[in-house]
Amino acid sequence: MTLDRVLERIDQDLTHSVDRLCELLRIQSISTDPAFKAHCDTAADWLVNDLKTIGFDAEKRVTPGHPMVVGHHDGPDGEQDRHLLFYGHYDVQPVDPLDKWDHDPFAPFVEDTPKGKIIRARGASDDKGQLMTFIEACRAWKAINGSLPAKLTIFFEGEEESGSPSLVPFMQDNSDELTADIALICDTSMVSPGVPSIASQLRGMLKDEFTLVGPSLDLHSGHYGGPGLNPLREMSRIIASFYDEETGAVAVDGFYDGVSEVPAELLAQWETCGFDEKEYLDNAGYSMNHGEKDRTSLEQQWARPTLEINGVWGGYNGAGSKTVIPSEAHCKITCRLVGDMDPDALRDKLRAHVEAQLKPDTKVIWDNDLEGSRASVMDITRPEFAAAQKGLSDEWDREAVFVGMGGSIPIAGFFKSILGMESMLVGFANDDDKIHSPNEKYDMKSFHKGIRSWARILSELS
Length: 462
Description:
- The chain contains 15 helices and 19 strands.
- It has helices at 2-12, 14-25, 37-54, 128-145, 167-173, 175-178, 221-224, 231-241, 264-271, 277-283, 297-303, 343-357, 383-396, 410-419, 444-461, and strands spanning 57-61, 68-73, 83-89, 109-113, 116-120, 151-157, 182-185, 197-202, 204-213, 219-220, 306-314, 324-325, 328-337, 363-366, 371-373, 376-377, 401-405, 423-427, 441-443.
- Helix 2 (14-25) packs across helix 4 (128-145) and helix 13 (383-396) crosses helix 15 (444-461).
- The longest helix has 18 residues, at 37-54.
- The radius of gyration is 24 Å and the shape is globular.
- It starts with a helix and ends with a helix.
- The mean pLDDT is 95.
């Protein structure tokens, strides 16, 4: 059987697949920092060249920011009827704080751990390891069959970790070229180790940033301490006002507009999906759920909105002490959105809440680099989802489950709104992969079985 031979090829070539992944992981493609722009270009070039070795007609496409990578490959005998698009991103998060890494984040290596072999490096899980599972599946399929099972378009982005400023214009300008029957995305995790998962819904995202300005300059705390208004103290008070400490809910007026309760039957399905709440909390060093008092961790992660403080700073942060009342305090916030929450309307409510808290002699300056995306819900009744569920179930020896996702992947919404195309999200990351954190890793089992999973899914879809 052709699939059996493809799977055997994947197993035989695993060492080379890991070597190729490590080559990509060595490239410091941090998209948010202009100092790494050349590295992002290098990563795009590497992917173009690798796709060409499989037979893709691949190009690096220039944008005002970091380049896109687009590749095309016909189906067997030039077939055009079935057209699949695969999306991933080659950029990675910054590595700060560097002193928390046990090894150089861009010197990937395979490590033996009590839970099995892992690949350790920045981007190993998010998203270089994940996108390479699909490329390696295509490589094995082509080696055995001399062709791919369907017409394939590859679409790799280099700005996913920095707000994707070039993404929407690029998709609009190249809509005919990128439109396919369905988009396949590998940038998600499994609900629990060894439980293959297909995302049925994703939370949206809202980002904002503001500065509180008090005195006209930093003041001597011996001269103005007491009568002087301290912006850091005011920032602390405003942040505390965002939350109801009794219930754990967000206390911003109208915050939950557009949020619906999860149907009881869906909650019941989630309870049997393999999620281990204790392990989930233990992985982060928590002893308890600190969120909404009447909601499980899983419901909060998949179906409830959040308001998080991502950064607060101001005053003196160097060594030693400096006795000042700072002139300014700064805060970065993000919200995860669910249901029909409108990011623009919510931004207005958040800003109104902050402005209502201001005392005399304080003003607020808002960041004007606005970012927001709605939540996404996938149509899992489409036949492609049943095909993927079968392929995953066969590979992992247990039924694949449809799950929600706590993260936000705006590209899924853009595929729908710009290209009129449904997305299917299948990923093999685990909650302990430490994405966006020091010592990021990707399980060797996830990488190996991820490649095999995509081969099975391609077989089912062809």
